[in-house]
Amino acid sequence: MASDCFIQIPGAAWRIPAAALSAATEASPGLRRLLLHYVQTELVQARHTAYVNATFTLGPRLARWLLMCHDRVDGDDLPLKHEFLSVMLGVQRSGVTLALQNLEGGGIRGRRGRVQILDREPLRQVADASYGAAEAEYARLIVGA
Description:
The protein has 145 residues and is mainly alpha-helical. The protein has helices at residues 18-27, 29-55, 58-71, 82-89, 93-103, 120-127, 133-143, and strands at 77-78, 108-111, 114-117.
């Protein structure tokens, strides 16, 4: 379904029945405001992702995706296989392999089934304007809330 979510990297997630969430948002204006801010950040991210996918080449898109994953996990090791990255980026697996090789020494170290983030700054430079807009909106609306 269009509203289905899945965990891309092993970790934990919570879920709540829709009726319970609805009741909680009715009872708490603060929760309602926070959730509406979250929806806003998701819309910004979706629009920005569409722009990035239509405008940027694979290298910046991969760097952006790695930065986004790194933002959401504890630590610097991302358990990511080339096949999974190819699906997420909508490209052939061989393209991901070449793009990862190009990033080696520039902020990452690739190992079988893993990508280790060594330095975010070179990745940000490769990602260029593809990374940062949605993250700034999240910081403004959620972190600053």
